[in-house]
């Protein structure tokens, strides 16, 4: 009796799964946008139309003052780039925006590059980019004060804004360029400085030699979650103490040279319970030198997820699988709370010309061209899907980036597993300057609009803003989501600082007013710039950029 019923059910189920989308239903698509002139190796949105890019000071085609540029402002409206004058080498730096809207680029490369003699060492540099309101970047420049420096030299560090609006700066290495971190800056410091010496970190010692670009997250209680190698801690900034959490399962390491990615899942009221998701990376013998590895070394498809509460930590990491193995990829928040997985490769390592069998010059091979979506609220085993996702057609290997834009689509650039720019043909993975966007289906639909918003928003307040809704979405039973987002700083497979906080929200009966409640304090959303998106039934508006908090500068020592 059971058998016919089951097969009928599975027959019905297979029909349901096989049902093709209506031919004119909008889908996800990649769109080629133009040429960035420098490698989009670091990317951060600085205003509604501009993405600030940094590269290595090398032989890039974009010129400024008769030498190759290594900084620029990518214009999302015009799809072109304005070169910026940068003094120090920003290669493999971190960055974030302070509570007063100033972007700080942190650390970088200690050396120059032949053919670009103007370059100064960048490993102790702090480059400031003051708030830029011009949609085309007119008058917006990078400011480098030779007296404003990091306490320690840092190449491949991570920096994220914390509850008082300043930056916590974590790890990196001093000078030596190698496969591993063999010259560690195993310490923390702040910008602006909170003290005159850096704070030693046992975690950064213990996680050597695989702890560059530590994956760090400002938790909603003000402490900081950190992942390096296969290890995790919670760092209490105020007490200067580290609490050791369970290792990632199965020996997976997730920092260069085995760049996995990690993200804090969206925080929701009333509890804002944090969960961390860590995906990809690889298992390898860290006692071997790079020449003993191959570009075909398998990446991992493992994701590990933990709830950062005493019960969640006691339960440990929950393991699930991506549709394919990846290194060098990015995990990004979408305004509806889904996570986008994009870029990267399914075998090999970061860097170039250092494994035994490079492909072209790349230490990695087998570009992963098809993005996937992760739905955090779905059941374990059913969270990932790449159904209907297009192929990008462009490998995005080492030194590539991705960031959500205020328009609601995803900017994708870079890839350069080469020594400087290399546009020679006839080998795999040359320097990539083409910019694409990955456009969600809603980009070609009628969308909700936030018509205006106050420039500054206080914490813990109800706010009403005028909106417009397409008729199809103006329904009492529609699913309304309002997200307050930090779009993060993208480099080396990690969107440092990225954050999505959902806000309780309602839409008035006439569909013309949206009211929402801002996060309770600067621990849930560190004070500083934010982008607000309204999503109705998975159709997201363009984002509006606001200042969360006073907009005052972070505290300084004196
Ligand atoms: C970018 O394109 C716009 C519109 O065509 C043009 O006005 C502007 O001069 C261009 N900027 C650069 C830096 O090419
Ligand atoms: C993490 O890595 C260390 C060093 O390789 C190893 O001793 C430990 O067993 C790993 N942890 C897990 C859970 O695999
Ligand atoms: C790794 O490869 C190099 C040759 O490239 C060799 O000299 C070395 O002994 C090998 N073994 C280890 C453990 O690194
Ligand atoms: C490098 O690859 C070659 C060819 O596959 C192999 O013979 C050699 O043993 C490899 N060397 C190392 C150090 O793994
Ligand atoms: C670019 O890389 C190819 C492949 O390794 C190499 O043959 C060529 O010499 C490189 N060109 C430059 C300018 O470095
Ligand atoms: C990179 O290229 C530069 C300039 O051609 C050269 O001087 C340098 O030795 C190269 N470095 C490596 C690691 O190949
Ligand atoms: C923001 O604060 C930083 C750190 O104190 C300072 O360097 C910068 O000039 C400030 N920016 C503005 C616009 O006040």
TrEMBL record:
Start and end residues of each Galactose oxidase-like Early set domain: 447-548
Signal found in the keyword field: yes
Keyword Signal (UniProt): yes
Keywords noted in UniProt: Signal
InterPro entries: Gal_Oxase/kelch_b-propeller, Gal_Oxidase_central_sf, Glyoxal_oxidase_N, GO-like_E_set, Ig-like_fold, Ig_E-set
N-terminal signal peptide: 1-18
Stretches assigned to the Glyoxal oxidase N-terminal domain: 70-442
Name of this protein: Glyoxal oxidase
Organism: Dichomitus squalens
